[in-house]
Every structure is written in structure tokens, then in C-alpha cells.
Amino acid sequence: MRKLSFWSLCVSCRSARGAGAVGKMARVGLGAWVPCRRWGWMAVSFGFHRGLSTLLASKAERAPRWLPACRQKTSISFLSRPDLPNLAYKRLKGKSPGIIFIPGYISNMNGTKALAIEEFCKSLGHAYIRFDYSGVGNSDGNLEECTVGKWRKDVLSIIDDLAEGPQILVGSSLGGWLMLHAAIARPQKVVALIGIASAVDGLVTQFNQLPVEAKKEIEMKGVWSMPSKYSEEGVYRIQYSVIKEAEHHCLLHSPIPVNCPIRLLHGMKDDIVPWHTSMQVADRVVSTDVDVILRKNSDHRMKEKADIQLLVYTIDDLIDKLSTVVN
């Protein structure tokens, strides 16, 4: 695979398949206005590294290497932890680097993205782990007692007790926040990150955007009924103590000491976590090998066919990059 260097803060726009020739202008960060054709995705590069745009251009014409229709069942296992809830997980053994999927808020390990990555890893023969947070899915624990800090410990337990060798973390929404904490805590083992609609500091940011009177009422009641179209009840009931605890884990207020390659995927129609959050993360991390990849018509979940294709291509690119570094 050929290599390509990018100038710092450049914008790479490539026409999506079947897209028309409607002219667009893209402005990112401190970069200049760059004319480009209508895009299905937009990559923003920080620093010098191999370009994802080159990867997508070269792979777009070939069929995907995974076959979801032929998915094999993987049995559930449990990680026993003294004084902590047991965690349900599924693991594929294989080559390094391994991949770990970190799900979103109250999401389990059986989502579209988690299963698609598993099939992709099977096709490549790479190790893969997906799991449920404490209080979620098949894991033990009481959801009402869970906090960002406790879920952070869950991720570290998976890395420390189950994962073998270097790992690429793929974090969705809340998982994108926790993957950064894991990379800070385990820099020798976490070799790359992929964030999907990363909700870094998200819970605290959304709470702080509420009117003063609304925040006072939540503090008095001790619970926040946060509206969400992804909840069957239409709201998530979050304890006020959880919000206050989450403040101790915020990252965007200062430089984030993560030096590994980072790819941040975000939908521009995300009405839960603004895509600007991924730009903030890119600006705050110490790493110079960072791509922000925006999909114009994608929402928060990013689970449509084109979103999944972009995700697995991004994983493949990082595996290839890391293998090149090792060799």
C-alpha cells in the first residue's frame, strides 16, 4: 500500500459514489477555504501520516471482506472481579493488534457496529473483544449505581485481564470518552483509537447547557430526566450524583496526553453530540497523527451501511499502519 503525507491542517474531500458535481466549500479549524465537490465524508488531517483518503480511494472498488450473513455465534463469557460486578464479554482470539469495542451509554455488546467489527476481525484473523458495562446487558451490577468512573474501571479491567498485546480501541459515543481515559492510563497497551460520535465530556456539557432554574430543580430532585429518542421511555433518568462524579473525568479543559494515532468519525446530522466535539478532541490531544472524518448525512448512531464500511476501512487502515511500523 502506497504512502501519502498530508500537510498539517489540510482538508481532503473526495466525491462519494454517484455524487453530483455540486460545488461546495469546506472550512476547518485554521485551514483556508478549500473548494471541493459534494462529499459523502470529509477528512481533516492534523500532522504527518498515511492518508485515510488514499485508503478509501483504493478500497472503494473492491468488495468488503466480511460477510455478516454468515455470522457465527460467539458464546458469552464472564470476567470475575473481586468487589466489582462481573462483566459479560465475547472474545475472538487472533493476531495483534487486537480490537476492543467500547459501547455507548446503556448500549450493549450486540449492536450493529460491535457485530460488524467482529465479522471484520474474523475475516482478518485478528483478536477482538466486545463487552457489556456494569449494570448493562448481561453484566452484573445496578445501573443506578453506575458512574463514568466505574465504567472507566470496566474498560481497564477488559484491557488488563482479557486483552493480550497491543490494542486498538473503538469507542462509540460514551465509549469515545472512555477510550481516551484508557489510552491515558494504559499508554503501552493502547496503540490506536477510533472514536465514533465521541461524547467526550458529553454528560457534563449537556447538563451545563441547561437553564439555571432547570439545573437547580435537578439538584433538588436528585435526578435528571434527560430527553432521548433512543430510550423507550423517551428519557434517560440520570442521578444528579452521576453528573457531579462525571465532572472529575472531563478532558477538554486541558491538553489530553494521548500520543497514539487517532481517528474520529462523526455524523454532521448528529443531534446528540455535535460534530464540533470531535474537532475539540483533535485540537486537545497531544498526538499529531489525528484524522477527523465527517459524514454529511450521518446521525449519532452511525450504523448505516456506508457508516459501517467507513468504520471497518478505518480499522483496516490502522492495522496496516501499525503493521508497517512494527515491520
Structure description:
Belongs to the AB hydrolase superfamily. By secondary structure, this protein is of the alpha/beta class. 31% of the residues lie in helices and 26% in strands. Strand 5 and strand 6 form a beta hairpin.
> Share of helix among residues?
25-40%
**Global outline:** globular
Mind summarizing the main beta sheet? 10 strands, mixed
Per DSSP, what share of the residues sits in E-state strands of 2 or more residues? 25-35%
> Which stretches of 5+ consecutive residues score pLDDT under 50?
1-39, 47-51, 60-72
* Coarse structural class: alpha/beta
Helix-strand sequence: EEEEHEEEHEHEHEHHEEHEHEH
Q: How many separate helices?
A: 9
Question: What is the CA-based Rg, rounded?
Answer: 19 Å
Mean pLDDT: 83
Question: Order of strands side by side in the largest beta sheet?
Answer: 1-4-14-13-10-9-7-8-6-5
Spatial separation of the terminal alpha carbons: 14 Å
Number of strands: 14
GO molecular function, one term: palmitoyl-(protein) hydrolase activity
InterPro entries: AB_hydrolase_1, AB_hydrolase_fold, ABHD10_acyl-thioesterase
Domain AB hydrolase-1: 99-198
Protein name: Palmitoyl-protein thioesterase ABHD10, mitochondrial
Key traits:
327 residues, alpha/beta, two-stranded antiparallel ribbon, 9 helices, 31% helix, ABHD10_acyl-thioesterase, mitochondrion, hydrolase
Summarize the structure.
The protein contains 9 helices and 14 strands. With 327 residues, the chain is of the alpha/beta class. A hairpin with a 2-residue loop joins β5 and β6.
Question: In terms of topology, how is this protein built?
Answer:
Elements: E1 10-15, E2 23-26, E3 34-37, E4 39-46, H1 52-59, E5 77-81, E6 84-92, E7 95-102, H2 112-124, E8 126-131, H3 148-161, E9 167-172, H4 174-185, E10 190-196, H5 202-208, H6 212-221, E11 223-227, E12 235-239, H7 240-246, E13 262-267, H8 276-284, E14 290-295, H9 305-326
Parallel strand pairs: 7-8, 7-9, 9-10, 10-13, 13-14
Antiparallel strand pairs: 1-4, 2-3, 4-14, 5-6, 6-8, 11-12
Helix pairs in contact: 1-9, 3-4
